[in-house]
Specification:
Layout (H helix, E strand, L loop, with lengths): L2 E8 L2 H11 L4 E5 L2 E6 L2 E7 L9 E5 L5 H9 L13 E3 L4 E7 L5 E7 L18 E9 L2 H11 L11 E5 L4 E6 L16 E5 L3 E7 L2 E3 L1
Parallel strand pairs: 1-4, 5-8, 9-11
Antiparallel strand pairs: 1-12, 2-3, 3-4, 5-9, 6-7, 7-8, 10-11, 12-13, 13-14
């Protein structure tokens, strides 16, 4: 599953553009009065101005080369603080065979660099910088009905990457995943309970998934 474009809402367009474009050095692909977008490897990350009194935040992840976890961690730590969990600032997921590190952007989004130790994930022989990020590889989708949303997406042709539960269900593969979680579940490496906010995801060969309501997906 290849995420081509991820569109999120924010109340902090100016600060977010400064963070992603100027500090993380991600190329600017669009810059308008109420939105901007940056290139993240093979994906585009777009932020649009939020038009209500909510304060949107999301969890999403970026794939990095499987041999560059240490360099990537050092690089992002030179730019912003790392999130911690149980007094550690990194994790190895045995079930995923992947190393990950987390940080929080100016809007409160919980962002993850993940180095999946899988043959399909490329290696790099260059010094790590933002050009080495491969793509956007995960987006968290918050709902009150995890299995209902998962089955709607299954019907479109995106299968579970592993068996889900009533609280958590991952769909897709190592290139891209929908992480479906139940409302109020605490996001890993944060103290934030998961909350629903609208999100759009353009996926290669499947179209654009629009989550405008907590328990419904439109294509």
């Amino acid at each position: 599953m290849k995420i081509q474009t991820l569109t999120l809402l924010t109340n902090n367009l100016k600060e977010m553009k400064e963070f992603y474009h100027e500090r993380l050095q991600l190329p600017l692909r669009g810059d308008r009065a109420k939105s901007f977008s940056v290139q993240i490897g093979a994906s585009i990350l777009e932020f649009k101005k939020n038009n209500d009194d909510t304060d949107p935040f999301y969890h999403f992840a970026m794939n990095i080369p499987r041999n560059k976890f240490r360099e990537a961690k050092s690089w992002i730590r030179s730019i912003t603080n790392l999130n911690t969990h149980n007094e550690t600032d990194e994790v190895f997921f045995k079930n995923w065979n992947a190393y990950a590190v987390y940080f929080t952007d100016p809007a409160g989004n919980i962002v993850e660099f993940i180095a999946r130790q899988h043959d399909s994930i490329q290696k790099s022989h260059s010094h790590f910088n933002s050009d080495q990020i491969i793509n956007i590889s995960e987006i968290g989708i918050v709902t009150n009905q995890v299995q209902t949303i998962a089955k709607q997406i299954n019907k479109i042709g995106i299968e579970n990457s592993r068996q889900g539960t009533e609280d958590f269900s991952p769909l897709g593969d190592v290139e891209g995943l929908f992480i479906i979680v139940k409302s109020n579940r605490i996001w890993f490496f944060s103290d934030q309970p998961a909350s629903f906010f609208p999100v759009e995801i353009k996926v290669k060969d499947f179209g654009t998934f629009i989550f405008n309501k907590v328990d419904k997906v439109s294509i």
